[in-house]
């Protein structure tokens, strides 16, 4: 039997739009014959899934699974084409099982998550079945994890669309949830100001120097104004220095410190972030179909 190569898997993926694991499996079963694999996929009904795979999946949900002691959590983004499906019980049930499987395996690589076991099969098999049932492209897009020894990983999901994990030394789950809610609302860049990347600071300095009120001022005045605005910027993007959303009179750093805790890290996912959504002109689509008729 001929060996299935990475190039063959790539070609089948490009020709069918199906996932890597299902393409590899189809090639193995077809004896490394691409044309036979395509025929077999069509016969098994997966052609529908292939057709859907070309559509943009930019809606969906963020789902979190956490260990009983709140010391570790995994957050997964699973995409669908429409918000309607993202609220479907079948979709949400699948998403919760995927998050739990990822937590149990301590896995965040989507390709490896696809191989994990759920519902008597793999995540990928369950995904394909759901695509067939719902009729939309569904993808496990990304996953992140946080863990802490002797501390707490807090979490919060806002409207199913924005998810946050916060790892703390000390504190409790309730404090972790409060800080996670803050991160969801304000979207800080880093925990502490000294974590802001140098290239980000350099770009900010460049922007500040180009502002109209800097023009014509002596160098020493410019440097003094620059220092003040950079410090202001650092406080705006650093979690510890931000006014807490529930009580602006205290900073997040102060709130956590008063509880005898310290924020170590956070992760924030927004559904569809970075995905270029397909703009559909339905009127033009109808007109085009009318002309064909």
CATH class of the domain at 56-147: Alpha Beta
User: Helix-strand pattern, N to C?
Assistant: HHHHEEHHHEEHEEEHHHEEHEH
Radius of gyration: 24 Å
CATH architectural type of the domain at 56-147? 2-Layer Sandwich
Q: Name the shape in a single word.
A: globular
- Physical arrangement of strands within the biggest beta sheet: 1-2-5
Structure, described:
By secondary structure, the protein is of the alpha+beta class. Among the domains are: 47 residues, Ubiquitin-associated (UBA) domain (Helicase, Ruva Protein, domain 3), CATH 1.10.8.10; 92 residues, Tetrahydropterin Synthase, Chain A (2-Layer Sandwich), CATH 3.30.479.20. 47% of the residues lie in helices and 21% in strands. The chain is built from 13 helices and 10 strands. A 3-stranded antiparallel beta sheet has the order 1-2-5. Strands 6-7-10 form a 3-stranded antiparallel beta sheet. A two-stranded antiparallel sheet has the order 3-4. Helix 1 packs across helix 2 and helix 2 packs across helix 3. The longest helix has 19 residues. It is globular and about 75 Å long. It starts with 5 loop residues before the first helix and ends with a helix.
